[in-house]
Specification:
Layout (H helix, E strand, L loop, with lengths): L4 H8 L4 H8 L2 H12 L9 H8 L1 H4 L2 H17 L4 E2 L4 E2 L8 E2 L2 E2 L17 H11 L2 H19 L1
Antiparallel strand pairs: 1-4, 2-3
Amino acid sequence: MDFSSRIRARAAGLLNGAMLLQIASREDVQQEMLRRIRLGEKPVTALSQALIESIGQEAAQDDNLRRLSGEVTAAIVEGRFGCQRSTGSKLIKGDLVFTSGQPFKEGVRHSTAEGGTPQGGSDLTIAEVLIKLLGNENLFALEKLVGQELHRRAA
């Protein structure tokens, strides 16, 4: 998984940040995040057991690591699976690491058997997915390009 420079920098500054990114990059963990979303659960809880096994429960409960876990989870489920945040952070009961988490719902995927944009598909949907994948630096560059294009069209 290619995380944003912001997430990588935050992880580098935490004792177990690199381990968190390694765990979150695993295919089985990412699929478990999606499965939990489909069950109406918070996807961040898919990281709990692997974190405990790798670094221990006390280290996994570090507030900064838990905050980063939420950000990493959001990057994965929004960027890879096109999920959307549904409501504000909610209490998680019974998890050994996380006490609250952001709920997500699956987004509508637009595709065809040929892999192209479906008839009647929205260019905005495609743009939204691409924008979510951009790091901050590229997002600011895109903002500048859009501004230039709007100025050109207005002329």
